[in-house]
Amino acid sequence: MRISIFGLGYIGAVCTAAFAELGHQVIGVDVMQYKVDAINGGEAPLKEKGLDALIYKGVKKQKIVATRDTEKAIFNSDISFICVGTPPKKNGEIDLSFLKRVCGEIGAVLKRKQYHILVIRSTMLPGSLDILKEILENGSGKKEGKDFHLATNPEFLREGSAIKDFFNPPYVIIGADNFEVGKKVLEIYRNIKAKKFVVRSDIAQMIKYASNSWHAVKISFANEIGVLCKAQGIDSKKLMRLFCEDTQLNISSYYLKPGFAYGGSCLPKDVAAIQKRADKLKVVTPLLNAASKSNIEHIARAVKLIQSTKKRKIGVIGITFKPDTDDIRGNPILLVINRLVNQGYNVKIYDPLITKANLKAIKKSYRNEVFDLITKEDLKEKVVEIEGLFTSLNNVVKQDVIVISNRDESLQKVIKELDENKIVLDLQNILDKLSMYAKAVSLV
Questions:
Q1: What would the mean pLDDT of 259-274 be, rounded to a whole number?
Q2: CA 431/CA 412 separation, integer angstroms
Q3: What pairing do the DSSP bridges indicate for beta strands 148-152 and 116-120?
Q4: Could you please report the per-residue DSSP string of 283-320?
Q5: pLDDT band for position 370 (cuts 50, 70, 90)
Q6: Which helix or strand (DSSP H or E) is residue 357 part of?
Q7: CATH number of 209-442
Q8: CA distance 357 to 359
């Protein structure tokens, strides 16, 4: 099938590579020239495990091409997937401006095309599709349901394992109010072995928020149980492993691991969005509200734990959100670092996934993310410059306190060789996994 993909960020780039691997002809579209050039050169425009190899393979087989030309993409494809970002506004609502802009551009092109299917992969709340439908109809002068069709296809890809998740999803969900259109979109995933569903578009839009809100609740639940266990001298890790043995009622063990606060580009944004929707509908959701409050408190606990060491020289190992990715969006360690620097601590950072080439983007992202976190907490903190905090691993391990905030396997050898007299604060509970109990203090 001929597919065009609008937006070559994490989701779009992964889908471009994966759809080509499934045998489809794929055109990637993005406004950023460097992303287009990277893909046409057989390289991934961002770091994601396994992505470079798939992009290279797809380009070599002439299954992938990238462009900035919307008209070229629409006229040379039958189905378009829109994968642009829906970031949060300062009030917690989702920002549809990128989606609106892309749909406006596509609508102008649809004037001259007989029929097309548009599939939204971007995360958005129910009701958003009606907004995009109106933009497309106004721009094209055509009617949705007759001259073109809209569908949704929520993604469940985790950064660091997105390629694996694409080919081994929990399920594939297509939201389409026209069942035949839904089945046609589902044909793209014919060679993916998973449960497949065609549902109403509003259900498909809401399932992502239900999933991410549940994940947020599970993380907060595990962290609170962990703190309660620690206060009573109980091993929270062993307790939670036992708790997760009940697969009939407790369902999934993935997020039920006491550790640091949740973050990333999805959970905080999606929990905030669904809370805002609940407020508008005057529906009381105390658990969802409590999850956010509990998460903020857990970030504060990390700061207090560091402060309790009475040491002022702090080394932080890893600030990317997850292993095998260079993304720092929404990582709660950023707020911890910002607060410590504001309080006069000498903080040094080492992260092997962050290079000089992407430090400028990381710096900008850091300022945006920390400002957003500070705003949400209603605090008046200065957003510190992060660029000067990066140093070599050798300098970081010389600090009085070592904070482990990333599970990246490349760091494990370093951690094993740390001076036994160092104070090691393990926010990710990886030392428990490495059987290094005596060396570290955990958060829960």
A1: 75
A2: 9
A3: parallel
A4: ---HHHHHHHHHHHHHHHHHHHHHHTTT--EEEEE--S
A5: low
A6: helix 356-376
A7: 3.40.50.720
A8: 6
What are the structural domain ranges in the chain?
2-199, 209-442
Does the reported pTM lie above 0.70?
A: yes
Task: Please state, in angstroms and rounded to a whole number, the distance separating the CA atoms of residues 19 and 167.
Answer: 10
Say how many C-beta atoms besides its own lie within 10 A of residue 186's C-beta.
19
Q: To which residue do tokens 């780039």 refer?
A: 13
Q: Quick one: what percent of the chain has pLDDT higher than 70?
A: 87
pLDDT in tens, 391-433: 888 888 889 999 988 776 666 667 677 777 778 888 877 765 5
Q: Give pLDDT, residue 356.
A: 63
Contact 109, 70 (CB under 8 A): yes
Q: How far is CA 436 from the centre of its chain?
A: 30
Of 15-29, 209-223, 260-274, 332-346, the poorest mean pLDDT is in 260-274
122: amino acid identity, one letter: S
Count other Cβ atoms within 10 Å, centred on residue 256.
17
| Fold of the 2-199 domain | Rossmann fold (3.40.50)
Residues 35/130, Cβ–Cβ less than 8 Å: no
Q: Which of 62-71, 245-254, 348-357 has the lowest mean pLDDT?
A: 245-254
CB neighbour list of residue 283: distance below 8 Å, 6 or more residues apart: none
Greatest alpha-carbon span in the chain: 71
- Distant-in-sequence, close-in-space partners of 57: CB < 8 Å, separation ≥ 6: 20, 21
Of 343, 320, 344, 346, which is closest to residue 332 (Cα–Cα)?
Answer: 320
> Which active-site residues does the annotation give?
266
- What Å distances lie between residue 203 and 188, 235, 409, CA to CA? 20, 40, 38
- Between the alpha carbon of residue 8 and those of residues 45, 172, 243, 407, the distances in Å are 8, 21, 40, 26
| d(C-alpha 53, C-alpha 66), whole Å | 16
CA dihedral sign, ordered 432, 437, 440, 444: positive
On the question of a common fold for 2-199 and 209-442, the answer reads yes
